[in-house]
Protein 1
Amino acid sequence: MVLHRAFYKALDLLQLSDGKNKTVINRDDQAGYRLDTTYTHKGRGVLSKDAEVTTRVDYVNGYSSVLQTSSYHIMETKTMPQACVGVVKASFVYPKNPSQHASDLRMLEKHLEFAEQLDNKEFDCIRVDGGNENPRSYEPQFLWTERHVTKGKLCTEVSTRHSGGSYLNRVELQNGCQAFAHSQIFIPSTLNGSNYNANGLDKVKLEQNLEAATDYYIDRVDGATCGDSHTRLLKGSRDEYASHLQERRDDLLIFLSGSKKAKEELKTRNSTRFNYLTEIWNVRANHMVKTVGDKYLFLLVPCYKADCCADRKNTLRSPFGVTMECQSACYPFQYQTQQGHGEENVISALDFVLVTIFHLKTV
């Protein structure tokens, strides 16, 4: 644990010195905000001479009525200001998986308020909180590799803290400030009428009500103070790219962890998609630095191999017309790593990060 904290201290020194060429994000899912009750706000007292008229009964609907915010804390560096973003999603409407997170991040990059901090950066420095975005899981690794290639990244680094250490992430401060901002706000899940009809639960009406509740929540909580900045709240991504990632996800999971028979069926059923997934996964194999271990760190750097995707950049394209290419021409690239350390040794990982980025800046 001590070594891991030292590793993050060194990452702070490395990543927060200059943000002009880096995307530095601390990402986490905030605890869900439950509609129809203020039970989840019981820890946030307010000063008032009037008696409260809303109870804190632990009421639970028979349908999903939770709004969850994915917090993106764009960390302050010596050259770039802090920015706080919350992507609000109703659990019934939006899936909670790495593919949705990927489409949300793409949406934020296109947003004018955050383009300076997120778009056209050579380095991705991403800090996550484990769970379904753990950097050692295959789906997040695939999606970060896909971004690494389609965005032409020089280095992609995704890290997570040790078990029980997430409270050290600055994004937790953003989560707390937002929780304080929505404290004592009561939002019903029936703003447009009952979610039930003669046949039972009306899913169309429920989605309409959840969208209305999301709009109301954003209207009330948007602009919550977080340190020297304010949290900007947006709805989750539901554009064509988001739909594509969700439609593709079942095939992606088969490709990553399915049986040999299932993979062969996928290859026969959709050979174009299978070939694309294979190309991305091959880039992961070539660019992934395996000497640092994969428990806390996922690191991608250009491989400089003659047979990598750079030599085929005119023929290999993503489904959305983005040419995939390595950052620069391939040639042999040798690096030094400490010997005798275990794969999960964070000092060895830090040593490699420092040496690698130094070389990449001077190549």
Protein 2
Amino acid sequence: MTIIGRLNRYARRTAPAGYSSARQQQAVRRILLIQHCFYVAHLFLAFFLAKELWPLVFSAGEPLPLWPVFWLNEANLRLTAAGIILFLFGGAVGAAMLVQARIFRVAVAIGVLLAAALFNSFGSISHGLHIWFWMAAMFALFPSVGEDEILSSRALRLRVISIFVATQMLVMLFYTLSGLFKLTNGFTYEPGAISSLSLHALSVHVSASLFGSQGGTILGDFIIENPWLGWPVFLAVLYFEIFAVYAVFRPSIQRMWGFFLITFHLGIFVVMGIAFLLQPVQVLLLMAWSPFAVRDTSWRQLAIDMPVIGVVARELLGPRPAAGDRQKFWAAEMQGLALLIAICAALFFGRFLYRLIF
């Protein structure tokens, strides 16, 4: 069997058991409500983006245009910026009022792409807009019909559910790649540098981030002075980031994963003073409020369903499985871990090629 076939079997084995028509309709209602919440949140984002972009265009001098606004230097900068902001606002208002109209959802994705490129052309990088764009692009694929028609059609229900799960996987892939890059840096750091897995890694990173800032943060000095407390927190963050994609296939741990990632972003603010405003909203909508998340999961089941840790927890806390069940469990776990190892190996190889070429 091919690797794709094995991954498909792994996904089916770890997905919620056969959704009935009623459960599909319940999940679709929640997904469509999440879609509405996203576009309402985007309306506020459009306002704040315009508030940040307009003075930037008037006072920051000549930009270094990035794709897809590479033509900025050949056009009237202020007129072009005004057009992008109005396009962003128009798409946001239209999508918030007529979410079933795909033209407005496509306009939202294009507006975010143009606004992010314009903002980044002035020298700073807004990472939050990257994931927001991809989420908007995925939501633009939802059927352009009313809720009643979607609920009455099995094909449309499955399409909505498939697009939402794909969005979950795409957004969680950002966290998985972030964790894998941190992990690879722990083994491929430059001579004389501190490994990302070092006991002092977090305290050094926090001190470097706060160096030259005018004021401290709530917990920044505490983490710098007590690196042994920050180290296990960093390892926990590394664990939850690396296995973020894995959590999409485990409904019982989706809510926990979502709330931990939200806490992670809030922790960055209280420790380093860096505010992540968009990422907590995305994680809240996709994971913590997921229509597939299992409510009232016992701590025992959470421990068993945790990646890697669950292998030990299953032996210690779970019922004694039959020989066939044990073999299937280990096969599923090994296939999931093999996927992550393959991604990690690809990152190592890509890093090697980059250094070799550049």
Protein 3
Amino acid sequence: MKRNRKHKIRIMCLLAIFCLGILFTGCGADSKEKETEVENAGQEITAADIKIPDSSSEQDITEEPGAENPTQENPVENTAQPEQPEAAADTASLYEQFLHNNLPAVVGRSFPQEDYRAPICEPNASYTLSELGARTADYFLDTTFTDRTTYDAIEYAYIGCPDNPGGDKKNLLVKFVGLDMYAPDDMSYAVFVLTETDGQLYITHEYECWARSAEEPYANGLLHSDGSGGAGDHFVGLSAILSDGSCTNIYFSEILHGWWTNYVDTDIYNEVFDENMEINLMVYIHTIGDTRYYQYDMSECTEEEKPLCETYIDKCRTQAGINWVTDDEIQAAIQNQCAALNIDYGLLQSYEKTVWTQL
């Protein structure tokens, strides 16, 4: 019994020593942590103390198989989001590279070669901005009546596409100002249309403006034109620069007054009117699509002129096959042309002008 009692006392003493050892060890660690906190208290935290993960470490975490990011509910969707505006950004980048003379543009198939005595741009050739400007100056500037050897300035603008008004696609207009087409210092200019297709820039159209001919581009991609071929011969028109960069007519109207109405039929005109007679008849020749439409206006004719004008109108109908139409028929034809081009007819009422920026 005494032996067992002594044995129990030994065991109890060992357990007590073991517990005290644990207690003192824990207290020592806690004391050290508290001492560290006291030492750090009041110290200023600098940028060096803040660890900012670099992009490579973030990428590694994102791409690690099976890894979870507690801050993202759907990491796959968030990773894909930056790719959405790529197409529009790439197109803008190509236009900017061209404007900075770092990228050439290829002459597209729709570029109107047949309208020129010699081509401004060779078919299938490619030009940087400076090369295009040099060809433009060489083509238009005539040293026989101007001392100018190059253009004055370059301007550019972006326009929408009327056949895709809700899309992000934009076409680029580049204007070379100061070409003396009609007279010295007339501030005439030439405008080139550029478009992007499958990562390639193309020069697709060109038009020029001078004292007797003007073209006004609108922000939606429509192009209004007006001008004069003489005192009694004026014209107005509306075209569309489409998403492929090509330019197509919606309508073109020639407005003839007095003697110029003989353009309808010269023989009948000379038969009805004395060649020295001045008349106030007006005739409109509208070209819409591939069809011509004719209208007349005798509101300014005198009572003496009206019978002769009526005879001329009637003979043009019966002998020359001219089909005189009403305003409603003209509007219906324009609406049909818009539908054929996939253009909303309502866009024709939008007159927001294009904003030009000088390089």
